[in-house]
Amino acid sequence: MDRLLVLCRHGESEWNKLNLFTGWKDPGLTEKGVAEARAAGQKLKALGLGFDLCYTSALKRAQTTLDLILAELGQTDLPIVRDQALNERDYGELSGLNKDDARQRWGEEQVHIWRRSYDIPPPGGESLKDTAARVLPYFEAHIMPDVMAGRRVLVAAHGNSLRALIMKLEGLTGEEIIKRELATGVPIVYRFAEDGAILSRQDLAA
174: burial class by Cβ within 10 Å (0-12, 13-18, 19+)? Predict the structure, then answer.
């Protein structure tokens, strides 16, 4: 039985390019982001991987990334579950602000704390701990049971929602996961044993 889970952060978005805090805002992909998503599909195809079921967030940058990956795989008819439980971390009052402007307003140290601490949220937003509290129950109730039942699952989501999943899967601490960088459009392939232990992890960075 093939217990396969692939996680992929969306391709570069318009707001990534502009150095803006994005969160639950809904910009589309740049041309580079479209190319990254297509390249992700090509990498998965080169490995001979296919899927039975997909999950993504309620935000179009992740949904478009998934659609482009599936087009490269020739699997555009797969069932897709879209749920805001997989949305990016909500940056609250920082959403839409240029990161340099935010540093001028609140100070570099404070903005760094909001971005890189595990449990301190920005004003009106979520910390990574808050994001994990939203993402992990959904993952454990829906996604992981599909994987353990032998379905090959692809998840296209966001840097911080995927960090929450990786923290759980790899048994990392909050301090360890905030240091983990996830490149846009790079699939991470996990295979699992019958007891849920990770048999292998492959990062498909170029």
Answer: middle
Domain ranges of the chain: 4-203
Across the range 122-132, mean pLDDT stands at 96
Alpha helices in the chain (DSSP H): 14-17, 31-46, 60-73, 99-106, 108-116, 128-138, 144-148, 159-170, 174-177
Q: 4-203 architecture in CATH?
A: 3-Layer(aba) Sandwich (3.40)
Q: d(Cα 80, Cα 63) in Å, to the nearest integer?
A: 9
195 Cβ neighbours under 8 A, 6+ residues apart? none
User: What is the DSSP code (8-state) at residue 26?
Assistant: -
Q: Is 88 a catalytic residue?
A: yes
The annotation status of 93 as a binding-site residue, yes or no, is: no
Does 10 qualify as catalytic in the annotation?
yes
134 in a known ligand binding site = no
Q: What is the dihedral of CA 163, 129, 135, 35, to 10 degrees?
A: -30
13 among annotated binding-site residues: yes
Between CA 144 and CA 14 the distance in angstroms is 31
Task: Name the active-site residue from 36, 88, 126, 158.
Answer: 88
Instruction: State pLDDT tens for residues 13-66.
Output: 999 999 999 999 999 999 999 999 999 999 999 999 999 999 999 999 999 999
